[in-house]
């Protein structure tokens, strides 16, 4: 009987965690993207294109309920340690004070780590010129 209880508990825990995770795997985002480029100096200089988010964005689940709404800021970053010459890129900034998060019932909540990761821009992969041609 004790083994059955343990297996039952583990299966409930597994399915609860799995359902919570899938809630944020499929979502839609609505907002504006700006495109920019910089010249990466190397033996042969090359133009690198990238994008960043601007203004207000809304994230919705596949069930069409709002997960998050907020505004992205921008920052100009000077990069001087890669490629032999300095260049500037525009990156997103985010202040969680400017964001609102909801649960599936439409109630405003404090964001979970998954929700914060959902709205955090992931730009650095697109900016690395060595990874563009892979």
Report on the architecture of this protein.
This is DUF3997 domain-containing protein. It is a single chain. Helices cover 26% and strands 46% of the residues. The chain is elongated, with a radius of gyration of 20 Å. The chain is of the alpha+beta class. Strands 1-2-3-4-5 form a five-stranded antiparallel sheet. The chain has one domain (23-127).
Describe how the helices and strands are arranged.
Layout: H1 2-25, E1 27-40, E2 46-61, E3 66-79, E4 87-102, E5 108-109, H2 113-119, H3 124-127
Organism: Winogradskyella marina
Protein name: DUF3997 domain-containing protein
Nutshell version of this structure?
By secondary structure, this protein is α+β, with helices and mostly antiparallel strands.
Largest sheet: 5 strands, antiparallel
Gyration radius, to the nearest Å? 20 Å
Number of strands: 5
- Secondary-structure element order, as H and E? HEEEEEHH
Strand content: over 45%
Number of helices: 3
The 3D shape can be described as elongated
Q: What percent of residues adopt helix (DSSP H or I)?
A: 25-40%
Structural class, from secondary structure content? Answer: alpha+beta
> How far is the first residue's CA from the last residue's CA?
54 Å
Count of the domains: 1
Summarize model confidence as the mean pLDDT. Answer: 78
